[in-house]
C-alpha cells in the first residue's frame, strides 16, 4: 500500500539522508563509469552493462527526493523505474544519480549519467546543448510569498530580493526579463525554501507545480502568482547527438502515455499532494 507522508516529513528526511550520504557525496548511489560499447552507442552500453544511470533530484518532493530510508522516491523516479523495467527487465536496474538544477547539463556532457529525469524544463537555450525527448509534463513559473506580505504582481518585486535556484527557468526568466529584481540564488531546493522561511527574500520563484505542493504543506505561505511567462514542457534529456537513446526514450514516453503508466505515476505520487485542486490533464503532457 502506498503511504503518502507529509512533505514536511519528506523535507526533514531529505536533510537526514544527505547527512548519511554514501561515497558519492550526494545521497545516492556512486556513479560508476560503465564500459563503453563500440562507437559510443549509449543505448548499446546500457544494455551491455545491464544498468541505466538516471539523474534525478534528491530534494524536490514530490518529483524527486530521498526518503528517511535513503530510497529515491517521487514522480520522476517512478518514470525512471518504468523505463528501466521496459529496457532491462527490472526497476532495480536503474542507478539513481542525484543532481542539482545547475549541473544537469554537465552530468550529461561528462557522461556521469545516461539520462536526465530531474524535472528538466525544455528551453531553446538548453536544446542547443542537450537533446530533449518528448515531454511528459507541462508547467509555468509561479511565485510563492508569505500570506502576510503577499506578492501578487511582479511589479512589487522591484528592488526587492527574490529567491531562486541556480540554473532553473526561474533564474533565467528573471535575469533576462526583470533586471530590476534582485536575485538571491541557491544550489539546492531545501536551501532556497529555508531562505524564504527565514525572510532572506520577499518571495520565491519556481515551477508552479512544485510551489502548489510546497505551499499546501507550509501554512502561512501562498502562491499568489500562479503563472508567469509562457507554459513550458518538462522532458527527459540525453547527450547531444545521442540518437539511438533519444529514439528509444521517445518511444518509451509515448508508450507510457498510451498504456496509462504515466497517469498511474501521477496518481501514486502527485495526486496525494494536489488532491482535486489540480487535474492530471493540467500537468501531464499529451
Automatic annotation (TrEMBL):
Entry superkingdom: Bacteria
Signal peptide stretch: 1-21
Pfam families xref list: SBP_bac_3 (PF00497)
Family matches, as InterPro entries: Bact_solute-bind_prot3 (IPR051455), Solute-binding_3/MltF_N (IPR001638)
Gene3D superfamilies in the cross-refs: Periplasmic binding protein-like II (3.40.190.10)
Keyword Signal: yes
UniProt keyword Signal present: yes
Residue ranges of domain Solute-binding protein family 3/N-terminal in the record: 51-273
Record SMART domains: PBPb
Keyword set, alphabetical order: Signal, Transport
Family that this chain belongs to: Belongs to the bacterial solute-binding protein 3 family.
Protein name: Cysteine ABC transporter substrate-binding protein
Organism: Kingella pumchi
Amino acid at each position: 500500500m502506498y503511504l503518502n507522508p507529509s512533505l514536511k516529513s519528506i523535507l526533514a528526511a531529505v536533510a537526514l539522508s544527505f547527512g548519511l550520504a554514501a561515497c558519492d557525496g550526494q545521497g545516492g548511489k556512486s556513479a560508476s563509469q560503465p564500459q563503453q560499447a563500440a562507437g559510443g552507442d549509449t543505448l548499446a552500453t546500457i544494455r551491455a552493462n545491464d544498468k541505466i544511470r538516471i539523474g534525478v533530484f534528491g530534494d524536490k518532493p514530490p518529483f524527486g527526493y530521498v526518503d528517511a530510508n535513503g530510497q529515491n522516491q517521487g514522480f520522476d523516479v517512478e518514470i525512471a523505474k518504468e523505463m528501466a523495467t521496459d529496457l532491462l527487465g527490472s526497476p532495480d536496474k536503474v542507478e539513481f544519480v542525484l543532481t542539482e538544477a545547475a549541473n544537469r547539463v554537465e552530468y550529461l556532457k561528462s557522461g556521469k549519467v545516461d539520462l536526465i529525469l530531474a524535472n528538466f524544463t525544455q528551453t531553446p537555450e538548453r536544446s542547443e546543448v542537450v537533446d530533449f525527448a518528448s515531454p511528459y509534463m507541462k508547467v509555468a513559473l509561479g511565485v510563492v510569498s508569505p500570506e502576510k506580505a503577499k506578492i501578487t504582481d511582479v511589479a512589487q518585486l522591484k528592488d526587492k530580493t527574490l529567491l531562486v535556484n541556480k540554473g532553473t527557468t526561474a533564474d533565467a526568466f528573471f535575469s533576462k526579463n526583470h533586471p530590476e529584481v534582485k536575485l538571491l540564488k541557491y544550489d539546492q531546493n531545501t536551501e532556497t525554501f529555508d531562505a524564504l522561511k527565514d525572510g532572506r527574500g520577499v518571495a520565491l520563484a519556481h515551477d508552479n507545480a512544485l510551489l502548489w505542493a510546497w505551499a499546501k504543506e507550509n501554512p502561512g505561505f501562498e502562491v499568489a502568482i500562479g503563472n508567469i511567462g509562457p507554459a513550458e514542457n518538462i522532458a527527459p534529456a540525453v547527450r547531444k547527438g545521442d540518437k539511438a537513446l533519444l529514439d528509444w526514450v521517445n518511444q518509451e514516453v509515448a508508450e507510457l502515455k498510451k498504456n496509462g503508466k504515466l497517469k498511474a505515476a501521477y496518481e501514486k505520487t502527485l495526486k496525494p499532494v494536489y488532491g482535486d485542486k489540480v487535474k492530471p490533464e493540467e500537468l501531464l503532457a499529451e
